[in-house]
Amino acid sequence: MDCRYIKHYSRSLDREMEYKTYGDTGVPVLVFPSQDGRFFDYENFGMIDTVARHIEDGKIRLICVDGIDWETWSNSSGDPRKRIERHEQWYHYITDELIPEVRRGEETFIATGCSMGGFHAATIFFRRPDFFNTLLSLSGVYSARYFMGNYFDGTVYDNSVTDFLSLMPDDHPYWNEYRKRRIICCVGQGKWEDDLLESTRCLDTILAQKNVPHWFDYWGFDCDHDWPWWRKQLDYFMNNIVATL
Asked: Which one of 2, 79, 105, 130 is CB 3.0 to 4.6 Å from 24, fit for a cystine?
């Protein structure tokens, strides 16, 4: 398997950022880390091994990006305006710098992640559907209110999927774009999944009301918020995705 480590300077963040790629052909998969996670976590927790056959068959290639959650969403004692401004800089790093760097021509991406990685994947997917063909979010939360408490401004709104989708006009062109995409969200009903389950049901309801096709899968009460289950989910859903490529 072709595996590459890249370190580059981000203008948006004014710092060096890192990412890692796996495979050199196939549909690009943009992988977002879980809360306070790093670009190497997907490999360290066995997720690369889970989809290795699809990478080696040339069906997909993975780009595992780095996060800065400890400066933004996790920094609960920090100034909320500075936190969300810093996150927006990270968002522009992804959309304005990293995606153009790894994108080949006009190809579109699969966005995926577990836990907070699912939050990031969904937020960027719904903000920029022009970049993506598929969302695969595992145990994600879809409201920024979960992290920002009582603070809510326009930039928080822009990063709070259930808020901005709820208020998006019916004639907004993005609705038709979403209807052309593949949207998959999965959540368990076991330990540490309660908040994620509630948030997933909320997003499920909004998309159903707007007639946006989607596949929301609710796994059993034995399915916990943890890597062993995410490996099983990734294997199951990626098999389905790859079968349609």
From this structure: 2
